[in-house]
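Attaching the record inline, Q. Sequence:
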Amino acid sequence: MHVDVNNAFLSWTAVDMLKHGAEIDIRTIPAIIGGDEEKRKGIVLAKSILAKKYGIQTAEPIYFAKQKCPNLQIYQSNFRIYKEYSNALYDLLHEYTDKIERFSIDECFLDITDFIPKEKTGLQIAYEIQTRVKQELGFTVNIGVAPNKLLAKMASDFEKPDKVHTLYMNEISVKMWELPVSELLMVGKRSLPKLELLGIRTIRELAHTPKELLESQFGKFGKMIWEYANRN
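Structure, as predicted:
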């Protein structure tokens, strides 16, 4: 499984504020977590769903974000709070398996292969974790369920928020191959234009491109993304 906190910095800030008596859940208003404008580090670190509807983008200057939404509410980042809620999530997940890898402050991989009770399935455990996180910790997560880490990560990035998705081997051609190649893990802004010049626009097209051609164009990176696209 791959467990990914939805809009972590803003969600954790919201939960902590409510815990300390706030009357407004900042997840329900146009709000962002931003850097310090006075130190010229004023960029959007996280945004609420309503802020996103105004066209506000992560990493854009707060100055431009406020032009898009004049009543935008801005809250400072607090990594002490983020660490606290990240650890709370880790502790909850540790009840299901001791095979946990922290991928980032708001993401974890879990291998529950040897820890699934006979009366349950891995998918049922994923829904149980989703419910418990929401009820006990106050925020939501996306969970990807798959036979390996790559597919679990891809699955958790499907529709958000507060969703559980599977990406089993027999689902790859339908759920993964039809996605834009930019959605494949490790394909970034630098490699995307080069792939498009080769006529590769979907993960399916990447998977069916000769590995040798990709290696000649990208070296070891070409081999890696070909293997990522062909997890079948």
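The two ends are 17 Å apart (CA to CA). The longest helix spans residues 122-137.

More tomorrow.
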